Amino acid sequence: MASGDSISVQTVTPPEQAAAAGSGALGIAAHRPAIWRYLRMLGASADEADELAQETMLGACRTQLATDPAVARAFLRGVARNQWLRTRRFWQRQREREIAAAVEELWLATADADGGDERIERLRHCLDGLAPRTRAAFELHYRDGIAWPAVAAQLGLLANGVKTLVQRARQALRQCLERRTP
Fold this sequence. Notes:
The protein is an all-alpha fold. The protein has 2 domains: 15-112; 120-179, Arc Repressor Mutant, subunit A, CATH 1.10.10.10. 71% of the residues lie in helices and 0% in strands. It is built from 10 helices and no strands. The protein has helices spanning 15-21, 24-29, 32-42, 46-61, 69-88, 94-110, 117-128, 132-143, 148-155, 159-179. Helix 3 (32-42) packs across helix 5, helix 7 (117-128) packs across helix 10 and helix 8 (132-143) packs across helix 10.
């Protein structure tokens, strides 16, 4: 090395420190599952939530995120909500903004601390408590997106019978979740 040459030194932050500090790609990535769930709660489809969560994460990479995880989560939810509203061109519609505000309030009350993991686990527990035929009807319609007549045909019931069965399942799940809420 010649006497006039300089040495470039690059510092590297270990992944654990970056994630703990909430900075950099690793810290931002830790928030992605919660942002995805938040977008789904707003009403985005799974594919749309994937795309919007990705856009939110990319936007966050371009900014300096706060080191406080609660502040970072709130910022990312705001960016995600704005991305979602922008895709729907709902800026002029008060109803959708009210729904977004209600979802934000519900999220803060039930899922902010852990990104919704506890609530998902409680829902799984409550789903396990449903009768097999009731759970099958519920999952065929809501998870798999199958229309009522097709669900009825698969289960050997009338379409109205399946709707009633699923309505009772929703009520049972709601009660189960409310009982298990701290």
